[in-house]
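Its record is set out here:
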Amino acid sequence: MHQLKVILASTRSERKGPAVADWFMGIIDNHPEYEAELLDLKEIDLPFLDEPKHPKLQNYQHEHTKQWSQMIDEADAYVFVTCEYNYGLPAPLKNALDFVYHEWTYKPAAFVSYGGVAGGARSVQMIKQVITTQKMVPLFEAVHLPFFAQHIDDDGIFKAPEVQEQAAENMLEELERWSKALKPMRQEEAKPQ
């Protein structure tokens, strides 16, 4: 079984991301190969990066960093549920990525993005630049949800069109392949030097 962390990036007060994340968590329920946990950056509420030492050293001074480190380290794979702000990624997500380093290493990452006409795709492209530096492997398979708000009902429930439902299924299958493939590298990295 793979430990999957689904990271919800938006922290705005009137955000719609939780509806998208809830929908995606429902898709994961059909995949017994995953033990999934939703990490909502609004609830986790990391401050702006405040560690005095570089994250590569893993010499964390603050309890919030130690807790974040543990949450990220125990994962085998990640899915980022993200919106797009001004053609880019949300600042809270960039901050969360920068807090730790080794904990992300040799793990696959996939994306569920939402927004207007581009469906958050430009945000995903920026995130890929960051996470490859952290030695994550971003997948080609992704779920992009253009004009997603049209698919949220009066009760706040998001229901994706069938093509995006299938994209989510395909992405999860590929994420499992990469998680298995990278596992020996993660185990090698974990060995004492």
In short: The CA atoms of residues 11 and 45 lie 9 Å apart.
